Amino acid sequence: MRTIIPRTGILLMWIGIAVIGAIVYGIVNDQITATISPEFFSVFKRHQFAQVLEQIGLMDAPTRVQAIIIGALATWWYGLFLGIVLGISSMIGRYAPLSTRRYVYAAGWVLIATFGASVLFGAVAYFIEPLIKPDAGHWPFLAGIQHVRSAFAVGWWHNGAYLGALVATVMAGYRVQKQRRHGEDHSDVSGTGASQPRGV
Fold it and tell me: Is the separation of the CB atoms in 133 and 180 below 8 Å?
């Protein structure tokens, strides 16, 4: 019982770290994509999040301000998912849990992989747009957008983020389980570096 309670507290802290990390990622990511395609936010995202923006009085705010709100709202839930999946993989079971430092490292790796997938998908979409000539009939998020190529690239940048995040989360969960089985991290979950026996 004395072991379970501290672990629950650490797990909640880890989930909180993942949520905060995801929110920061979402805000930075959307500032980048708002630079590439302001219309993606001023037309598509503004409509998608219109109810929330109206409720907080930011419906007529500058695009970059709206991108901050949208970035946070679009990613916090993923941070929750990441924190739960990675936290359970890093702690639950008969092997010694990861240290907090290694957990943060694994979560950071997921965010970096997510960004890499975004860039890849966005770049591919940008280069193939002249070939496939996407329109709003087949790609509804392009409705009302004038600069189609950049918006199409940003749309797939965001799609790549979701797919990349999912794949990276699964891979990270598998990786930390493998680390624990092979005893690559024997530190306690507080990150102090104190040794813990297996089976705790």
Answer: no
